[in-house]
Structures are given as structure tokens and as C-alpha cells.
Amino acid sequence: MPLLLFSIAIREILYGHYIGVLAAMAGVSFFLALGYIQIFYNADITIDDEWISRFAFGRLIQRVGWDNIRLIRISREFGGPGCSYNVYQNQKKNSRLGIVGKLAFSDGMGDSVKFIQLMNINIVKHNIKIESVIGGVKTSLLQLPAIDNGKSEEIDLNKLDL
To answer: How many domains does the chain divide into?
Structure first.
């Protein structure tokens, strides 16, 4: 589709219709932006003892160190099941595709229970603040709520191997 819009823009330039060129180039930009967004939406999130990393097509595109996280904000504002997570950094760096300031992802993943456990272990280790935003109201939490068939419950950190 972007290639078709680009060819239409070239034709409009040849005929001197510059409004058509602007419209076609706006369409090309729109489709390219959608592709860029889809790369981030479908990227893999990896959690280890040092980093939360985002990989797309097997390449590292964003990484945040646990010691560089000042806040994790959980939100259910976008509708549908699950939560979105925004990880805010103390120092804004380690991004290769232009996104700076935060790492954002949702819990729509294969093993969300393991994800929450790994996140909570590192949150406790690094004393990271957690904030929940529901209906515009901010609430402080001690740990991320677990995901269990759409129900939210607390994980007992004493049972985890810290």
C-alpha cells in the first residue's frame, strides 16, 4: 500500500497536482508509522537479573537496567483484558529506535504468571515504586498484581525463591 501511494505521489508531481502529492505522502507516512508501531507491539520482552529488554526480529531495540527504574505504572485504561505497563527510567538512554523515557508493554503474553513473578522479584530487590492508575485515580502498590484468567490477585513473595 505505501508503494502504491508513493507511485501515485510521483504521478501527481508529474501532472503538477501538489495537493494530491501531499495527500499521497501523508498516506505513505501513515502506513510507515503503523509499521513502526507494530514492531514495538509485537516485540519480545525479556526479563533477567540486570535488564528488562525489548527485542524485535532477534535484535535488541530497547533495554532498561533494574537499577535505572524509578517507577512502574500499571494501567487498565485502554479497554480489553489485561494491563499495560509503563517502566519509567531515572536516566533516559539505551534506546535504538527513538523511543526514550519509558519502556511500555502489555501483559498479553504466553506465560504472564512467570512474567509477574520475575517482575515482582526484581521490584523487591531494587525497591522500585509501583503505581496503579484506574479510572484516573493513582494508587501505590507494593507488587504487581497477578494475572489469573482475568482475575487479579496478590502473589505471596515469601513463597518465591528470592
So the answer is: 2
